[in-house]
Design goal:
Blueprint (H helix, E strand, L loop, with lengths): L1 H4 L18 H16 L3 E4 L5 E5 L7 E7 L12 H16 L8 E6 L12 H7 L4 H5 L9 H7 L11 H5 L1 E9 L11 E7 L2 E9 L3 E2 L11 H19 L2 E10 L5 E2 L2 E9 L3 H22 L2 E10 L2 E2 L2 H10 L5 E4 L4 H5 L5 E6 L15 H19 L2
Parallel strand pairs: 3-4, 3-5, 5-15, 6-14
Antiparallel strand pairs: 1-2, 2-4, 6-13, 6-15, 7-11, 7-12, 8-10, 9-11
Bound molecules: (2S)-amino(hydroxy)ethanoic acid and manganese (II) ion (2 copies).
Length: 394
């Protein structure tokens, strides 16, 4: 399975993945998922929000145990973030069948669409729509960098966007959701390469628009300029400083410049701030401080600063009893929080949800250098099989 997925959407120049919602690589990954489901005799289903499901047992029976993750990537992402969870889910099912496990509950494997939000700016679109935390109206207004609307992108890929929206009936049939994911830090050790998640830090994405005035780089006197690049640069430094002081995280990783000419002062800079903290109060305070500093600096530069919150995820504390049950079943696996967002974090508001993490020796993620050792991945599959057996079998 891993070898088949590896070339899908991989850029020859960077070695990273470019699997974005509804693009051709996404379609290939989705075709792979469907094939895996059918090959195993599972009931394949596409839900109203474009998430893919593979069912063992009756999907309508209720109290289902669901596992899975996502197959899309960030721009030039690694091979593991997302796919490891999906591949491990199919592999865990194979393992359970090999063990002769007797299922007493339906089991489903899911591929949530557009987890990374690389194309339309909002993370976890598939699970957010399902859980009703993203409205169809808001989703219909989302556009990618080329101005393509989300429903048009969906339609072009052969999916019907008309029915997107909360799927409470589907969520009501789920008794537990477990997502396995590569660790995106360096907490786990070679001795204990599989851990259980305790919580997800609250996090969000804020777009800063710095409005200045386009002008000639060779003829405009310094004192006549309204250069938004200065305000942006100062804001980037402030973000790092404020986050560091608060023990939180703040990152400008994406920027768009208009008109983007070497010999023109920019008219507009758009910078996207990704900010995360252990608690919501700190997160809000840090973002407010960065915004206030940007406005103050903007006044100095003759630049107007506009702030738009594009997406937000409150703190997630995973279901305590389920978390403890998993950790115990895995012989006292380490329990750790994470700063990364996941579909599991979205589902946690509606169904008992847990996560397993598999060791990442360097901790590097959202990069082509992301890696996990085969032996650790196999331990992950075994752990997921143990957990699913505990939850879904006699
Ligand atoms: O950005 C994130 O937290 C993620 O990995 N989806
Ligand atoms: Mn990710
Ligand atoms: Mn992920």
């Amino acid at each position: 399975m891993w070898a088949e997925l590896l070339p899908v959407g991989r850029s020859a120049s960077s070695g990273g993945y470019r699997r974005f919602a509804w693009n051709s690589a996404d379609a290939e990954a989705r075709a792979w998922f469907r094939e895996q489901a059918l090959k195993r005799g599972l009931t394949y289903e596409l839900d109203r929000n474009g998430n893919q499901w593979a069912w063992l047992g009756d999907p309508a029976a209720g109290d289902a145990v669901v596992t899975g993750s996502h197959l899309d990537s960030v721009p030039d992402g690694g091979a593991f973030d997302g796919p490891l969870g999906v591949v491990s889910s199919f592999a865990a099912l194979d393992e359970l069948r090999a063990r002769g496990a007797e299922f007493t509950k339906p089991l489903a494997i899911v591929n949530f669409g557009d987890e990374e939000g690389a194309r339309f700016g909002v993370a976890c679109i598939g699970s957010r729509l399902t859980a009703g935390v993203l409205s169809p109206k808001a989703a219909f207004e989302l556009r990618d960098a080329d101005g393509v609307r989300l429903p048009d992108a969906m339609e072009k890929a052969g999916y019907d966007p008309a029915a997107i929206g909360a799927d409470t009936e589907r969520l009501g049939r789920i008794g537990a959701f477990v997502e396995l994911h590569v660790e995106q830090g360096r907490y786990l050790t070679a001795e204990q390469p599989v851990g259980v998640a305790s919580a997800i830090w609250p996090h969000g994405r804020w777009r800063f628009d710095f409005h200045g005035e386009a002008n000639h780089a060779g003829t405009t006197w310094i004192e006549d300029r309204r250069d938004p690049m200065l305000t942006f640069a100062d804001t980037v430094l402030t973000a790092r400083q404020r986050a560091q002081l608060a023990g939180s995280l703040a990152t400008f990783g994406k920027v768009a410049v208009e008109p983007n000419g070497t010999n023109a002062i920019a008219s507009l800079i758009r910078g996207w701030l990704d900010s995360r903290a252990a608690d919501e109060e700190t997160l809000h305070r840090v973002v407010e401080e960065i915004h206030a500093a940007a406005v103050a600096r903007g006044e100095q530069d003759g630049v107007k600063v506009e702030l738009t919150r594009e997406s937000y995820t409150p703190v997630v504390d995973f279901d305590g009893p389920l978390r403890d049950r998993l950790a115990a079943r895995l012989g006292g696996a380490p329990v750790l929080p994470t700063g990364a967002g996941h579909d599991a974090g979205i589902l946690a508001s509606a169904v008992p949800t847990a996560m397993l993490f598999v060791r990442n020796p360097s901790g590097v993620s959202h990069s082509p250098a992301e890696h996990a050792e085969l032996a650790d991945c196999l331990r992950g599959v075994e752990a997921l099989a143990d957990v699913l057996e505990d939850l879904a079998c006699r």
